[in-house]
Amino acid sequence: MIVAIDGPAGSGKSTVAKAIAKRCGLTLLDTGAMYRSCALLGVQAGLDVYDPANADAIVAIARAAEISFEQRDEGQGVFANRQDVTAQIRTPEIDIAVSPVSAIAGVREAMVAQQRAIAENCNVVAEGRDIGTVVFPNADVKVFLTADPQARALRRAVQRAGGDAAKDKDATADQASIDEILADIKRRDEYDSTREVAPLKPAEDAVHIDSSMLSIDEVVEKILSLDEGLKALDAQNGPLDATSGIEGPAKPSGRARPAKAERNAGKEERTLERMRPFARNSFDDYYDHPMSDYPLFAKAFYAFVIIVVGVVTKLLWPWSVEGVDKLADKGKGRMIVMNHVSALDPIPVVISCWMRGISVRPIFKSEFNLNTLTTWFFSRVGGIPVNRGTADMKAVRRAKAALERGENILIFPEGTRIKSDDEPAKIHGGFALMAQLAKAPVVPVAIVGARDLRPKGAFIPRLFKRVYIKAGDAISFDSLNIKGKKQQVRAMEELAMKKVAELRDHLRAKYPGKM
Ligand code: DC
Asked: Are 277 and 200 contained in the same domain?
C-alpha cells in the first residue's frame, strides 16, 4: 500500500500524512526532510549551494547521505549521516537553501532511489512534491493537497510561534511573520512548480483536495474514504483517540520490512516486553523475540558457536551449499524444508544464512529440551520447540510471527533422522500451515553425504567426507487448486516433500555414492 500526498508548502501535507500513518499503521516518509537534509549537509560542507558550479559536489554529498527517521513522542526525528538534524533542517536558512538543492537532478535521483528502497517492503504514506508523478507513479492513493497561500502562511507562522493551527482554529500569529512566510511560500511555489526536474504538479490521476476550509480530521477522512484497503487498515488499527489523528508517532520508518510483518511485528512488540540486556530473560522470550533483539551477550555467544562449529565442520566434513541465494533474500521469511539424515543437517543452512545477515529459526522437537542446559542452548541458537503429536499452535504462531518479520524457519518434516531409504518417512505436518498463515514461500533443500558419517554401531564418525547441500526454487502451490483448508495444507506438505526428494535424488546422481 502506497499513499502519495503531494502539494505545496504549508498545505497541511505533513500533518495529514502523519495522521494517516498513525491511523493505518503506515510508515511515514517525509521526502521534504530528505531534501532539507541534503541542503544542510551541503551548507555544513562549506559549499555555496546557490552556485551551479557546486552541483556535482552536492550530488556526491546526496549520494553518500544516509538519511533515516526515528519515531518520537513529539514527532519524527531526522538523521543525516547519524547526525540528529531534526531542528537544523527547519531553520529559515535551510527553508531557502533547499530550493536550489532540490532542483539538482542528481540530488533528486539519489533521494528517489532511497525513497523507493524504503517503500520496497513496507506500506508507506509519502509526502512531497513529486510522489505521485515520479517516485511512486503506481501509488494506490494519490492526493494533491492545496490551500490558499494566506491560509498556508498563517499555519506556518503559528507553527513557528510554537502553536498548532490544526488543533486551534482561532490561532493567530504576528502579521510581520505571516507576511514574511507568505513571501517565502510564494517564492517556493514558483520555484518548485517551474523547475525543470520533477516540478510540483498534480499527477493526472490524483484527487485534489483544498484544505483551506477543512480541518485536518476532515482531510484525513476524505483520504481514507478514497480506498477500501486504506479503510481496512484504519479499522484494523483501532479507533482514534481525540488527538491521535493529528500528531504522535507513526510506524518506524526507514527500515525495509514486509508490510504485513511491519504491522504484525508492531502488534507483537506491544504485547512483548523488551528483552533485558543484563537481567534474565525467559526461554519464551528467546522463542518469541526476533533474534536481532537478543541481548548482546546472547548474540556474541551465537556468533561464537557459529564460527567454531562452522570452522570445525568445514574442516572435518567439507560442505557446500548450492543456491544459497534462494534462502537468503533479505526481508522475506522463508520456510525451508529439508530432509534429515544427520545431526550436521541444520549447520550449513544456518551458517550460510547467518553469513548473509539472515536469521534462521530451526524448529526442534521439545524432547531435545532434556534439561536446563540443553533448553538454554537451543533457545540461544534461535530454536523454536514443537510438541510433536499434538497440534502445537504455540509453535505455529511463533513460526508464523518469525516468518512475517523476515526470519527463515528451518524444519525437518521427517522429524527423526532417516537412516535408510527403506524406512518409511512419516511426515510431520505443520510447516505448510505455518507457511500458509504467514504467506511465506516454501523452499526445498536437500542434503547428501551426511548419512554415512556415523555408520550404525560406530562410535567415532567418519571424517573428511564431503557433504553436499542444494536449495531449490520456492515451490509454487498455485497448481494444487484443492478445496478444503486441511486437504490443501496436506497437499502442500506432500508436494514440498516430493520436491525435497527430487533435489536429493538429483544430488545423489551428481555425486554417486553419497547418501
Ligand atoms: O515539504 P518541505 O517544505 O519540507 O520541503 C522542502 C523542500 O524540498 C521544498 O521546498 C521542495 C523540496 N521537495 C521536493 O522538491 N520534492 C519533494 N518530494 C519534497 C520536497
From this structure: no
Q: Is 88 found in the same domain as 189?
A: yes
**What CATH number corresponds to the domain at position 72?**
3.40.50.300
Same domain, 366 and 450: yes
Ligand 1 neighbours (beta carbon < 6 A): 9, 31-32, 35-36, 98-99, 102, 128-131, 188, 192
pLDDT score recorded for residue 52: 94
Q: How far does residue 135's CA lie from ligand 1's centre (Å)?
A: 13
pLDDT for 390 equals 58
C-alpha cell recorded at residue 188: 517556493
Q: What is the CATH number of the domain that holds 395?
A: 3.40.1130.10
Tell whether 122 and 228 lie within a shared domain.
Answer: yes
What are the helix (H) ranges across 294-356? 296-316, 346-355
| Residue 98: per-residue pLDDT | 94
pLDDT for the residue numbered 391: 59
Give domain status of residue 252, yes or no: no
Point out the ligand 1 atom lying closest to the alpha carbon of residue 131.
18
Q: What are 66's three cell numbers?
A: 544516509
Query: Is 74 within the bounds of a domain?
Result: yes
Burial (CB < 10 A; 0-12, 13-18, 19+), residue 160, is middle
Taking the chain (515 residues) in runs of 10, the rounded mean pLDDT of each run is 91 92 89 97 96 96 94 85 94 92 96 91 88 93 92 86 75 86 87 85 93 89 89 63 28 36 38 77 92 94 97 95 89 91 94 94 91 93 84 81 94 82 73 86 94 77 91 84 74 92 96 88
Q: Which range of residues forms the domain containing residue 440?
A: 273-510
Instruction: Give, using CA atoms, the residue closest to atom 2 of ligand 1.
Output: 32
How far, in Å, CA of 300 to CA of 350, rounded? 16
User: Are 317 and 396 members of one domain?
Assistant: yes
Judge whether 250 and 76 are in contact, CB under 8 Å.
yes
Q: What does the pLDDT read at residue 258?
A: 37
Looking at the structure of the chain, the number of domains it has is 2
Which three cell numbers, joined as nine digits, stand for 7? 502539494
Predicted pLDDT at 257: 33
Of 102, 184, 187, the one to substitute when testing ligand 1's pocket (max ligand atoms within 8 A of C-beta) is 102
CA of 120 to the centre of ligand 1 (A): 21
Whole-prediction pTM? 0.51
Q: Distance, CA 197 to ligand 1 centroid (Å)?
A: 13
Residue 129 alpha carbon to ligand 1 centre in Å: 6
Buried/exposed 273-294: b ≥16 CB within 10 Å, e otherwise: eebeeeeebebebbbbbbbebb
